[in-house]
């Protein structure tokens, strides 16, 4: 076992994070008997304010709507039926979002509520929409408070646990670090509550079958995600170029503790978020082609988005968010990108100025046909 913990990888430094996603579990926020833990949340707001002051973008993925709502509604202990979890989420979420607003506003930080469903990340068009919205919020300096839309999600269409949701959000926004604040201080070779010989990993560089075999079952009553879901989250995060840490979140100021060397496990990616995203786009099979003129080629090479004005020919049957090939004037392959219009729309607006889009289609849309962030050349 000793050889396994000697992972030589370099742990990321949270004070150097560009874009940080923090996942907060229900058990940290909500006390069954007393409700919301205000002191903890206030201290967390200080951590967030410090990160923001360093120039780090922050997204919070917070659980707790169901746990809060069930306390307010005095629902019975134990597993809730779906209808009751949905009702509890409706009652709890509004309080949860308000609590974040109240602790962050004194630091001059604006919060926004973002509720997502599994489909928002699985469907490419909706994925691009939620990505654009989160990007805009972050650009405006807002701290988005994200949760699953539990009120409308049924069991078949649920993430169910916010560990995987947080990883998906981290990849969606191109975060470089994801911190799962949990009730355990890291990833162990066995369940530390059952096996005294279990050892904690400092850094995991690759999720091997041996590592997967070590993930046990859920160990906390309030939260949904056990080590298995945390490992799935880690896989998603590192495939997207985002490092992920699991650490004990219960003491006040967990992020400060992390910066000061608190116990944790880091899962480290091989690539950065941009590289990972480009690889992801590059691996997709194009559903159509856009042939562009020489002016557009020059603009693309200079790092610009592809505007409809530079497009000469549209072929294929693609929908919004689908991958398409970008070809030069002579039909030479230039790159690939996720297109923001359907094939029929692209046909109609090709060769036209972005300002004419609304007049042609009858509705407004994005100025670019392919945004530069969604393109690989
Ligand atoms: N979305 C759920 C809630 O806010 C929590 C899911 C989880 O615990 O991971 O209550």
Characteristics:
377 residues; alpha/beta; Carbamate kinase; Archaeosine Trna-guanine Transglycosylase, Chain: A, domain 4; 2 domains; 15 strands; disordered N terminus; binds glutamic acid
What's the short story on this structure?
38% of the residues lie in helices and 18% in strands. It has helices at 2-5, 26-29, 38-53, 65-73, 82-104, 118-122, 124-139, 162-172, 209-214, 227-239, 254-259, 273-282, 294-301, 343-349, 357-361, and strands spanning 19-24, 30-31, 35-36, 57-62, 111-116, 143-148, 177-182, 203-204, 243-248, 265-267, 288-292, 311-316, 323-327, 333-338, 375-376. The longest helix is centred in the N-terminal third of the chain and has 23 residues, at 82-104.
Q: Which ligands, by name, code or SMILES, are bound? A: glutamic acid
- Classified by CATH, the class of the largest domain is Alpha Beta
**What is the CATH architecture term of the largest domain?**
3-Layer(aba) Sandwich
What fraction, in percent, of the residue positions are helical?
A: 25-40%
Shape estimate: globular
**Between the first and last Cα atoms, what is the distance in angstroms?**
45 Å
How is the CATH topology of the largest domain named? Answer: Carbamate kinase
Mean pLDDT: 90
Uncertain residue ranges: 1-7, 218-223
DSSP strand content: 15-25%
**What is the tally of beta strands?**
15
Strand order of the largest sheet: 5-6-4-1-7-9-10-8
- Radius of gyration (CA) equals 23 Å
User: Count of helices?
Assistant: 15
Give the full name of the CATH homologous superfamily of the largest domain: Acetylglutamate kinase-like
